[in-house]
Design a protein that fits this description.
325 residues; little secondary structure; two-stranded antiparallel sheet; two-stranded antiparallel ribbon; 9% helix
């Protein structure tokens, strides 16, 4: 009884007393992690082990600020230990401590799914790469998979899909002499544009500040298509292997061509990014360290440190980007 009353007196979801972390460890609370914990529930929702590094060997970031009190308690979100509070198919995960990656990354804790289902190779009894057989079902053919199948008369048109029609540069289809969907060729605008010249190589050009813009990269139309961790970007018109809410067909004015790095929402992302082709990393920033309105530096076009000028123009409704008088 004394222990229970003491625990209540200390408060819930606060680090106090002699706790090692929030509501765990010390003389009164349960341990913060169990080194013997195994995954018994599907996808490791019950994992309470002490693993705290990502598949890439980077330390996990603390769970501070993620989820409400109830979610934290039910999911064991203490310190920076790998957990699976949202039932991610990759099992226990954490937020990467890599400030440039800044994304949800799998930890590689062995749970109830076949490790071969996430090796980017078609093997075992899989019907496709990492799908079918013992893995998650493969996606069925659709009218947006960029493959002429299921009786289509053209690429994603005709048959069970909308009728094929004369191509335009805004129909969301790869037609005419386009190099990619609605871009390139003689008819449409280039799919991507180099923004520097001289003796710079393509790689140097794509990574230069000349390719940056004051709006956190929202206007970037360069040709970079790999992340800071050298992961290949997923096409913007695809929703696999990672869920992508920024489908190019739904946002035709965002420059979401092919799999080029872009920033479709500068209020969410502070630089150009992409969804990756790795199931272990949903999205990540690309290798262009653009100045932005949250970098703690007074960049050209700002009236002060991260305020006024371009920052206030980009975020007119957010008072934090207005310089104090």
């Amino acid at each position: 009884v004394l222990v229970v009353l003491s625990w209540l007196a200390l408060g819930r979801w606060q680090k106090n007393g002699d706790e090692e972390d929030v509501d765990c460890g010390g003389s009164l609370c349960h341990p913060c992690c169990d080194a013997t914990s195994l995954c018994t529930a599907p996808l490791g929702s019950d994992y309470r082990g002490c693993h705290n590094t990502t598949l890439m060997g980077e330390p996990c970031s603390p769970w501070n600020g993620w989820g409400g009190t109830r979610t934290k308690q039910e999911s064991g979100l203490v310190s920076n230990y790998c957990r699976n509070p949202d039932g991610w198919e990759m099992g226990p995960w954490c937020w990467s401590s890599n400030s440039k990656l800044s994304s949800k990354v799998a930890c590689g804790v062995g749970c109830q799914f076949s490790t071969t289902c996430h090796d980017d190779v078609r093997n075992g009894a899989e019907e496709g790469v990492d799908c079918g057989g013992a893995c998650l079902p493969c996606e069925r053919p659709t009218c947006r998979d960029r493959i002429q199948n299921q009786g289509e008369e053209g690429l994603d048109c005709g048959g069970p899909c909308p009728p094929c029609r004369a191509g335009t540069c805004s129909d969301g289809l790869l037609n005419q002499d386009e190099e990619d969907t609605d871009c390139g060729g003689k008819s449409c605008e280039p799919c991507c544009q180099e923004e520097c010249s001289g003796n710079a190589t393509d790689a140097q050009c794509d990574r230069s500040h000349a390719a940056c813009t004051h709006d956190h990269g929202a206007s970037y139309r360069g040709c970079l298509r790999r992340t800071v961790g050298n992961l290949e970007c997923q096409r913007w018109d695809m929703n696999s292997p990672n869920n992508n809410p920024w489908q190019s067909l739904l946002y035709p004015d965002k420059g979401l061509q092919s799999n080029y790095c872009r920033n479709p929402d500068p209020k969410t992302f502070h630089g150009i990014m992409c969804y990756t082709t790795s199931r272990q990393v949903q999205w990540a920033y690309c290798d262009v360290d653009c100045p932005h309105c949250r970098d703690g530096i007074q960049n050209p076009g700002e009236d002060g440190v991260d305020c006024g000028g371009h920052c206030e123009e980009t975020f007119p409704d957010d008072p934090q980007y207005k310089c104090n008088p």
